Amino acid sequence: MKFVDEFRDGALAQGIARAIHAEAKPHRRYAFMEFCGGHTHAIARYGIPDLLPTNVRMIHGPGCPVCVLPIGRIDLAIHLAIKRGVILCTYGDTLRVPASDGLSLLRAKARGGDIRMIYSPEDALRIARDNPGREVVLFAIGFETTTPPTAVALMNAEREDLGNFSVLCCHVLTPAAIAHILDSPEVRNLGLVALDGFIGPAHVSTIIGSQPYEFFAEEYRKPVVIAGFEPLDVMQAILMLVRQVNACRFSVENEFTRAVTREGNRRAQALVVECFELRKHFEWRGLGEVSYSALKIRERFARFDAEARFDLAYQPAPDHKACACGAILRGVKQPIDCTLFGTVCTPDTPMGSCMVSSEGACAAHYTYGRHRSTA
Amino acid sequence: MKTDYTRPLDLKHGHIDMNHGGGGRAMQQLIRELFAKHLGNDLLAQGNDGTVLPAQPGRLVMSTDSHVITPLFFPGGNIGALAVHGTVNDVAVMGATPLWLSAGFILEEGFPLADLERIVQSMAAAAHDAGVQIVTGDTKVVERGKADGVFITTTGVGVLLDGVNLSGAHARPGDAVLISGTIGDHGMAIMSQRENLQFAAPFVSDSAALNGLTAALIASGAELRLMRDPTRGGLAATLNEIAQQSRCGITLMEAAIPIQPAVEGACELLGLDPLNIANEGKLIVVCAAVSAEQTLQTLRAHPLGRNAAHIGSVTDDPHHFVQLQTRFGGRRMVDWLSGEPLPRIC
């Protein structure tokens, strides 16, 4: 397939693999965190660990939008669908995330909730137009990539004066999460997580640009290489990180120049600023409360803000006691370190969020990499 | 006395109503003017509660399949043809010659008779092409909202010649794994038609009866272990079933798996894995390694097997894992899908 196969070329991959083997110093270990679930997925799906030397290890980060969604937020969505009778519009991979009382959006749907899978916020607007007598709520989740389309939906709703449409806004911010991980005691003081560098987000960076990562590189002295989601992108980024580590450099490099600029997409950024403002606090699954890490809808669009419109109060809900998603999302544990992994927690019956989306560290390992831990 | 006159069914503008399932004259008329008109044959014409079938040499194979699908009509077929192909294929992959089908219809009140006729016509054509007869049937009507247009259950009976003994449990380490053509065509044809996902791409379902192809394979004398049609859950699910049943592993070569560029592209766009996408006219063959080349040639000589490929081999693996050697150079598991394939957001 044109424009895809070029980035999945096995011969080129072998070439980069040889370079990594040649340049990674045998006496030291390299631990890199890929922040994004998209990278986690690519690493697992293309079998990238097989191409790396044993002393180059990838740590899965918290960048799976579905995985970091706390139970309390899904509870709110289920509440809207079941108790308030709204049509709840959601992205597909959010449907199976476990919530309180053994529910998920999929199970809430089976209990009569009118929950519809959409591909874009525009679908939710259409559903609102087609059902003027019903309240329609867009369950808006995701990082900076999915935020601009939600902003466009808000603006269209305002322009059309779509009185039955609102947004349950759960958009979160990448830089805040990276800072939170770097500031965590496990990384800073305890040395539990050796982190030698980051593979920076692909799609998120098309929006926010590479500039926001410059702070981490300088302040925390960690190299960042922004990379695309194709497997060759990931391999090339790993090689670039190895080179930075070897040279004791810590700068932001951009492997994904075909889509990412330093400034990012100014137009999308302007849309987001126009529609959203920072939340003081937001709970992340795995990371807990992170200050200024999420967005809320601005006053101007208050009538489209489902939290205000339905007078919703957020109730935190604890994860399963034995679930290690939190530690896994922070890179402290690997999926196989969790006692639930592969026993009671599988993609069919996920207990924790990392097992839900194929971008989640646990689901990716279970689905694509299980042969490595049982061999 | 005047002969009974019944106004003919309005096959252009009429709809199914509750009377059509009531067991009275309306139902008889529906059977006569629609079902029997298209599906009629000597055996169906017996008109009794059960159909008496002529004795056959060899063992009998029987299989049943219920068909529910949205949309009912899709590029490359409709629920009627699919209901015939699905069951014919389940019998055929056992190595048997499918002969007879039953057809049970659950119709929703209000369903257009014109659509029903199109569906039944397709069933008749599919049965004719596959060389099978629909020999008994049933019709029920449920109130509006209690079904999705029409559900069709077909049961098939075929005969199996002595000496043919295929089973999902027969794969052995070293055996070759082949596929008769491109994967994912049916699933993408359906997904492209769902109302909230419109593609302009020309996806066409591969819905087809495989009994000609399976008969050619049986006749070839190749050392076959098993045949399967990878429908729901795609290649991944069926190969995992085989690995479990045969208590072995399977290793696939990604580069060898045939897939149409448009299907690959759409999967890419939606974050789906083509290995999980449904097929309705594809055959997986596991055969002894010595028969691999012969089997490949037999497949390719048939119109439904032109794009056949040797895609992997059976391995000795205590975990019964299906693994994929990626084009990229790594290795990964190919797992069952959990539930429906759901698009990723990122």
Describe it.
The complex is a heterodimer of chains A (375) and B (346). Chain A has helices at residues 10-23, 37-45, 71-82, 105-110, 121-130, 147-160, 174-183, 185-188, 203-208, 214-219, 231-246, 266-275, 306-309, 325-329, 361-374, and strands at 30-36, 56-63, 87-91, 114-118, 136-142, 165-171, 197-200, 224-226, 252-254, 276-278, 281-284, 288-291, 295-297. Chain A is α/β, with parallel strands linked by helices. Chain A folds into 3 domains: 5-64 and 184-208 and 219-254, HypD, alpha/beta domain 1 (Rossmann fold); 71-174 and 264-309, Rossmann fold; 325-374, no CATH class. In chain A, strands 2-1-7-8-9 form a 5-stranded parallel sheet, sandwiched between helices. A 4-stranded parallel sheet of chain A has the order 4-3-5-6, with helices on both faces. In chain A, helix 5 (121-130) runs parallel beside helix 6. The longest helix of chain A has 16 residues, at 231-246. With 346 residues, chain B is of the alpha+beta class. Chain B contains 8 helices and 13 strands. Chain B has helices spanning 25-39, 79-92, 113-130, 185-193, 211-220, 234-246, 261-270, 292-300, and strands at residues 59-67, 73-74, 77-78, 97-108, 133-142, 150-160, 176-179, 224-228, 249-253, 284-287, 309-315, 322-325, 331-333. In chain B, helix 2 (79-92) packs parallel to helix 3 and helix 5 runs antiparallel to helix 8 (292-300). Chain B is globular. The mean pLDDT of chain B is 94. The chains are: A alpha/beta (375), B alpha+beta (346). Chain A binds chain B through residues 1, 4, 8-10, 13-14, 17, 36-38, 41, 44-51, 64-66, 91-96, 106, 116-119, 123, 141-143, 145-146, 203, 231-232, 346-348, 357-359, 366-371, 374, and chain B through 196-197, 255, 261, 264-265, 268, 271, 273, 319, 321, 323-324, 326-333, 335, 338-339, 342-346.
Entry summary:
Chain A has helices spanning 10-23, 37-45, 71-82, 105-110, 121-130, 147-160, 174-183, 185-188, 203-208, 214-219, 231-246, 266-275, 306-309, 325-329, 361-374; strands at 30-36, 56-63, 87-91, 114-118, 136-142, 165-171, 197-200, 224-226, 252-254, 276-278, 281-284, 288-291, 295-297. With 375 residues, chain A is of the alpha/beta class. The longest helix of chain A is centred in the middle third of the chain and has 16 residues, at 231-246.
